[in-house]
Design a protein that fits this description.
38% of the residues lie in helices and 20% in strands. With 479 residues, the protein is an alpha/beta fold. The chain folds into 2 domains: 263 residues, Aldehyde Dehydrogenase, Chain A, domain 1 (3-Layer(aba) Sandwich); 181 residues, Aldehyde Dehydrogenase, Chain A, domain 2 (3-Layer(aba) Sandwich). Strand 5 and strand 6 form a beta hairpin. The longest helix is centred in the N-terminal third of the chain and has 21 residues. The structure holds NADP nicotinamide-adenine-dinucleotide phosphate (NAP) and magnesium ion.
């Protein structure tokens, strides 16, 4: 772990194993933090906040973030390889993640000097303004699908705001952020400003949520755990932001560019083995192209090359853990009873090791089916037919989630009408998944609340203080 500027073990001496999902071998052993370790990390973060970070010049905080971006770029190959070994994702995708993580630190390095208050138009005998201040110690809990990138999305805006951090990576994928932590002091981060604590959710995560000196919890993960976190945060009325995934619709009208649409459906669902919160796993296709679309998508899915992520030809790696592979395989069984299979549907036989799942396409799926309503978090697509625009919108919104959606058509009027009608925090037109650090990220409904990225991301770590200055020297004279 990395606590108060130093490598640290768990007070209990407990550890857990970390795996390579393509070999099923243990590649590291990490400390299993408990409440005592969380306490130590919070104390360090609290001291670092009050003894300096809170009042460190924004320019200086920004420069440190720039240097973190530089470190990620300088160590891109090493970090990407470690990310692939630990998460299973194809190396090419891991390299994109490293670039995006560097860009995220850079963006917030720039934003650190642009956090302004406002002067308010009160009557002339006073001046009033609103100023922004960091919340204090922030607890951050992240998932295993984009390990270093999710750490960047959390740490960068918190530091720009002037908060100090305790981050708990997912137990499956702690390695890249621990590797980057080796450079924290070298880039000028004072001890205790960013602490990385490893361990599981019920042990380390819950203790972080329960700690009285943690002012804010930022969480990305399942809706189920999101609910636990919101309840846990209620005791001390902590601020909470939640990014909880979804079951996002990817809508194809018959006037869309056909080849591109099929590719977009596959990209939207299968990138990162489908372990993506914004996966477009509900593919809605207009009836007049439905049959042709199912056939073309299935034919293409069967050509996706599975293999170890470190192999540069690999287009889909193994899932992150045995637990996740078994969970997804369970959904393949459920789906076989609910709909028809166009491609995949099982665990591939060609590998003697590795937690692989075949890219799978179900069709003739009813939107009320479990495979259309529950987040599977694996390479599983459910294709659902629709008749017209109104039907597409009705089906698209018939979900508890509301993270993302996409619409494919050449008709600009239709595209914008659908954009307006979709209940989702992110909507793409004629693409799905491009993500920019400048643009807000987060969901409607059970996909959570709060927004990451852009200026929205930094606001999640700021309080607003109202200041009134009396300019009138005459006595108040009320009593
Ligand atoms: P998860 O249970 O929601 O875990 C996300 C993070 O929360 C991990 O760091 C986890 O720790 C931690 N956590 C778990 N229980 C906690 C608790 N009681 N208090 C505080 N923190 C806690 O997700 P998962 O188990 O990795 O995956 C399960 C399913 O969640 C997936 O199949 C998928 O459907 C969904 N998921 C969604 C996203 C997303 O981005 N929206 C990401 C990941 C998973 P540990 O895992 O280390 O115990
Ligand atoms: Mg878990």
């Amino acid at each position: 772990m990395h606590i108060d500027g130093k490598a640290a073990k768990a007070a209990s001496g407990g550890t857990f194993d970390v795996y390579d999902p393509s070999t099923e071998q243990v590649i590291a052993t990490c400390p299993a933090a408990g409440a005592a370790d969380i306490d130590r990390a919070v104390l360090a973060a609290k001291r670092a906040f009050y003894e300096g970070w809170k009042t460190t010049a924004a320019q200086e905080r920004g420069r440190i973030l720039f240097r973190l971006a530089d470190r990620i770029r300088a160590r891109r190959g090493e970090l990407a390889e470690l990310e692939t070994r630990n998460s299973g994702k194809p190396i090419v995708e891991a390299e994109y993640d490293m670039d995006d993580a560097a860009t995220c630190f850079e963006y917030y390095g720039g934003l650190a000097t642009k956090i302004n208050g406002e002067v308010l138009p009160v009557p002339a005998d006073a001046i009033a303004f609103a100023m922004k201040e960091p919340m204090g110690v922030a607890g951050q809990i992240i998932p295993w699908n984009f390990p270093l990138l999710m750490a960047a999305w959390k740490i960068a805006p918190a530091l720009a705001a002037g908060c100090t951090v305790i981050l708990k990576p997912a137990e499956q994928t702690p390695l890249t952020i621990l590797k980057l932590a080796e450079d924290f002091e070298a880039v000028g981060l004072p001890a205790g400003v960013v602490n990385i604590v490893t361990g599981d959710g019920p042990g380390a995560g819950a203790a972080l949520v329960a700690h009285r000196d943690v002012r804010k919890i930022a969480f990305t993960g399942s809706a189920e755990v999101g609910r636990l976190i919101m309840r846990g945060a209620a005791d001390h009325l902590k601020r909470v932001s939640l990014e909880l995934g979804g079951k996002s619709p990817n809508i194809f009208f018959s006037d869309a560019d056909f080849e591109n649409a099929v590719d977009g459906a596959l990209f939207g669902t299968f990138i990162n083995q489908g372990e993506v919160c914004s996966a477009g796993s509900r593919v809605l296709v207009q009836k007049d192209i439905y049959k042709k679309f199912v056939d073309a998508a299935a034919a293409k899915a069967k050509t996706i090359k599975l293999g170890p992520g470190l192999d540069r030809d690999t287009k889909m790696g193994p899932l992150v853990s045995k637990e996740q592979r078994d969970r997804v395989a369970g959904y393949l069984k459920i789906g076989a009873g609910e709909a028809k299979v166009a491609a995949g549907g099982g665990v591939p036989r060609q590998f003697s090791t590795g937690w692989y799942v075949e890219p799978t396409i179900f069709y003739d799926v009813d939107n009320s089916a479990r495979i259309a309503q529950e987040e599977i978090f694996g390479p599983v697509m459910s294709i659902i037919p629709f008749t017209d625009e109104a039907d597409a919108i009705r089906i698209a919104n018939a979900t508890e989630y509301g993270l993302a959606a996409a619409v494919w058509t050449r008709d600009i009027f239709k595209a914008f009408r659908v954009v307006r009608s979709l209940e989702a925090g992110i909507v793409w037109v004629n693409h799905m998944q491009p993500t920019f650090v400048e643009a807000p990220w987060g969901g409607y409904k059970s996909s959570g609340f709060g927004r990451e990225l852009g200026h929205w991301g930094v606001e999640e770590y700021l309080e607003t203080k109202q200041v009134y200055i009396n300019l009138d020297e005459k006595p108040i004279g009320w009593y």
